[in-house]
Amino acid sequence: MNPMTAARTTSPADRPQLGLRERKKIKTREAIRTATYALIKEQGYDATTIDQIAERAEVSPSTVFRYFPTKEDIVLTDEWDPILLEELRARPVDEPWPDTVRYVMLKAARMGVKDDLEVARLRTHLLVQVPAVRSRMMESMSVTGRMFCGAIAERTGRDPDSLEVRVYAMSLVGGLLEASMYWAERGHRDDFEDLLDRTLNVLEHGLPRQNPGEKP
Amino acid sequence: MNPMTAARTTSPADRPQLGLRERKKIKTREAIRTATYALIKEQGYDATTIDQIAERAEVSPSTVFRYFPTKEDIVLTDEWDPILLEELRARPVDEPWPDTVRYVMLKAARMGVKDDLEVARLRTHLLVQVPAVRSRMMESMSVTGRMFCGAIAERTGRDPDSLEVRVYAMSLVGGLLEASMYWAERGHRDDFEDLLDRTLNVLEHGLPRQNPGEKP
DNA sequence: CATGAAACTGAGAGTAGCTCTCAAAAACTA
DNA sequence: TAGTTTTTGAGAGCTACTCTCAGTTTCATG
């Protein structure tokens, strides 16, 4: 009942309940993504063309576009928005909102990173290196932001379209993105969960009085 | 000494101190932008091609690209980053940081909007309507964010590359962007300075307890 | 002025992302 | 097995964008 989540860690011969059509679709989708990741690792992002991807994935170029609207989407498509939402809804309603955010964010990070560290690293690396990917990522994060708006509204009885809620949500996703870039820029040396924790602190309480001396 | 600011409200025959070359450059730059704005108003963004812009501006298409790296940049190029920075530096060093931000942001908004309301409206309209423009805008805002990082570091003796500073800066520009979109989405009915004020409140103190009932 | 260096421009060819159409092939349904 | 729907491949076409190169204009000399 959740094709998005099923679509990721893929052992080729499970999901017997789906029709052959669906299974093939999932398979080509993965083939395209795998081919893309491989080619990017070999040649870099810009040097990798859709034709090459299509060739290695053994589909036609038009098929690639039928599965992913843009080249950036092949790398980015985040299937965790619905998961995040689900997680968000599962929290007790009387939990203070900042706590909820912290919990859900941490959980999401844990999933996204632990699930496939290689991919997470490549993604964040591209996030820093390739402007087009960064832009696309910001786009998708603003979508996530809108989702947060809905969640906040649901829980606190606010108007999801109010300026305050939208700004708050935007600063959340923006901070998360910045943390990701920071992580990648420094060669993924830091513990991502720690970065996330510090990020949420800033968003909750503003800048701390002074930096606790930290030069690597 | 500030070509960026000089480049905007343009009466054709001032700036006598610049060489002929510079004056011509500024003139074609403006011609391209004017042509673009006009065409977009007539036909919309996507339907307007570079060739059309070049034709109306009476330059060759290649020249258009020599002046603006992408089509979106013709509409967006914000010449106020340096102004903002200057304004920021002009504030007394002992002023509390949030106050400084508020002052500078308001000033910037006042400039950007009052200076040419027509253009400000068109820009924010495109911001909402055209994904490519939105992306490009986000890109440029992240540049502005880096600038803020520098300013914060300068004033507070912090490391401009620290996670905390970067997250803080990002949430600032993100909030500003969201406010702009909110403004445009609601048909520019609201007072932009008021929106900005509310935005900064959220960023400073988080979400207010409850929405003071506001349905227009 | 005149002459040479430097910058600016136009023309055109080329790449690649992306869209669209149409006919063939595959998968589901009865 | 026959018929309907979905998926696919092939290819044409559009446009943003890059690059090169020759011709012109502006600027700084002697």
Largest sheet of chain A: none
- Which two chains share the most extensive interface? A-B, 44 and 43 residues
Helix content of chain A: over 70%
Average pLDDT of chain A works out at: 84
CATH architecture of the largest domain in chain A: Orthogonal Bundle
**Coarse structural class of chain A:** mainly alpha
CATH fold type of the largest domain in chain A = Tetracycline Repressor, domain 2
CATH superfamily membership of the largest domain in chain A: Tetracycline Repressor, domain 2
Number of strands of chain A: 0
The number of helical segments of chain A is 11
Low-confidence runs of chain A: 1-15, 211-216
Taken in chain order, the helices and strands of chain A follow as HHHHHHHHHHH
Q: What Rg of chain A is obtained from the alpha carbons, in whole angstroms? A: 19 Å
How far the N terminus sits from the C terminus of chain A, by CA atoms, comes to: 46 Å
The CATH class of the largest domain in chain A is identified as Mainly Alpha
Q: What's the shape of chain A?
A: globular
How many domains of chain A?
2
Keywords (chains A, B): DNA-binding, Transcription, Transcription regulation
DNA-binding region (chains A, B): 49-68
Organism (chains A, B): Streptomyces aurantiogriseus
GO molecular function (chains A, B): DNA-binding transcription factor activity; transcription cis-regulatory region binding
Short overview:
Chains A, B: InterPro entries: Homeodomain-like_sf, HTH-type_TetR-like_transc_reg, HTH_TetR, MftR_C. Chain A has helices at 3-6, 20-43, 50-57, 61-67, 71-76, 81-90, 97-115, 117-129, 131-156, 163-185, 192-205.
